[in-house]
């Protein structure tokens, strides 16, 4: 799983690099059309020009699940589309031998800059993700966690949008290692993260907080919504059959989950302490439970 995520992220970064380069070349060709009046590429005059450039073809046909709904990826799509539409208007004027109003040219440059900024933002974000991925599970490591949580906390403060934290710890995980071996234990961790990724949204953040402990940050999520998400995760993990040998025998694990809000009224550290306490309450109350604080 981790290898897949790693590969997908690398693949996306490569595509972004190619897109930055191909748009650089495309821009030079556009300037030749606008300044020297060489005939334009017919594709640039179509309404769906943004789907026909090298990046557009990839963007609208690739189905990289990991990024499909990622907010920066979606914003990049809009910026790219706007830029090609602006360029089309300029080319149409040139083709009909009309002057390009300066406001229109400025608007195009603005759209171009916006698209370039989005490319860089996505590249930066994904390069950071690759760097901070836990090699076993593909969850993020704690390296960038504090900074991300601080950012989320500040956003919650500014926008008054609630955010929530969940802390998940596998139950009696030591027994899994002791009874089935460390590599089966590793597999359980990988499958747990796979479960989490099925339930979580693209902009939720998932960190491997400790050995078998995971911290989840859910932006724009009320405490009640977070509790429901945690309950879905708990139930999914408990139902999962994990094959541990060649005969296809299976084992099951459970998880204890704490939930709290990332409340602007108190600090990120306080919120982490609270969510940790909630998780321990779930442990002491019998495990395989969700507790809210
Ligand atoms: N296989 C595997 N085991 C790990 C990894 N990281 C931590 N562990 C094990 O996770 C186990 C955690 O055990 P404990 O802290 O005693 O917790 P527990 O057995 O889950 O018990 P409770 O949390 O009280 O339900 C230890 O045996 C660690 O060796 C890992 O990357 N792979």
TrEMBL record:
InterPro entries noted in UniProt: Chemoreceptor_zinc-bind_dom, Diguanylate_Cyclase, GGDEF_dom, Nucleotide_cyclase, Rev_trsase/Diguanyl_cyclase
Alphabetical UniProt keywords: Coiled coil
Keyword Cytoplasm: no
Pfam families: CZB, GGDEF
PROSITE patterns, alphabetized: GGDEF
EC number, as in UniProt: 2.7.7.65
Coiled-coil parts of chain: 105-132
GO terms assigned for molecular function: diguanylate cyclase activity
Domain GGDEF: 161-293
Catalytic activity, reaction form: 2 GTP = 3',3'-c-di-GMP + 2 diphosphate
Cofactor(s) the protein needs: Mg(2+)
Family annotation (NCBIfam families): GGDEF, PRK09894.1
Name of this protein: diguanylate cyclase
Source organism: Methylophaga aminisulfidivorans MP
